[in-house]
Each structure stands twice: as C-alpha cells, then as structure tokens.
Amino acid sequence: MDIKTLQDALHQAPFRPFNLHADGRIVRVQHPEQVFITPDKTTVIVAGMEGGLAILDLDHISSLSMAPKRGGKTAA
Asked: 53 to each of 8, 12, 20, 44, 48, how far by Cα in Å?
C-alpha cells in the first residue's frame, strides 16, 4: 500500500471507517485520531477503541477496504 492511499482515507470528509488488511489480520479504523504514521512513513500504529495497539509495517498492508455507507432513512 502507498502512503497517499492511507492519508486520503484518513482525511476524507466526512470520515468513513475503514479496515486495513495486513499479515492475515484486519485492523478496523473507526476514527482518524486512532492512527499514527511514523515520521519516516514506514510504520502505521492503530490504537484500538477498546485498548491495545496494532503496529503495522506499511509494506505489509495489502489493502484498505471502506466500510459500507450507512443508509439514511427518508421521511415518510
């Protein structure tokens, strides 16, 4: 994965949650403030919403998948 794809996902407005797929794991990003990218742009650290950290090498992130858009109700 390239850093621009990740940064674009983090800065989209409005923000949409997404999943990072790396080394057979799926890491959910529910808020952009959960993610820290090291200054050398080689490591991504994701803080879990319930605690814990996922430390991912950017080269090992195989894909990013967006969460489906929520369907809004229309007034009847």
From this structure: 22, 23, 13, 10, 6
Measuring CA to CA, how many Å separate 1 from each of 6, 22, 24, 58?
Answer: 8, 10, 15, 7
* Side chain identity, residue 17: P
C-beta separation of 30 from 18 below 8 A: no
* Contact call for residues 19 and 6 (beta carbons, < 8 A): no
pLDDT means per 10 residues in the chain (76 residues)? 95 96 95 97 94 95 85 45
Report, in angstroms and rounded to the nearest whole number, the Rg of the chain calculated over CA atoms: 14
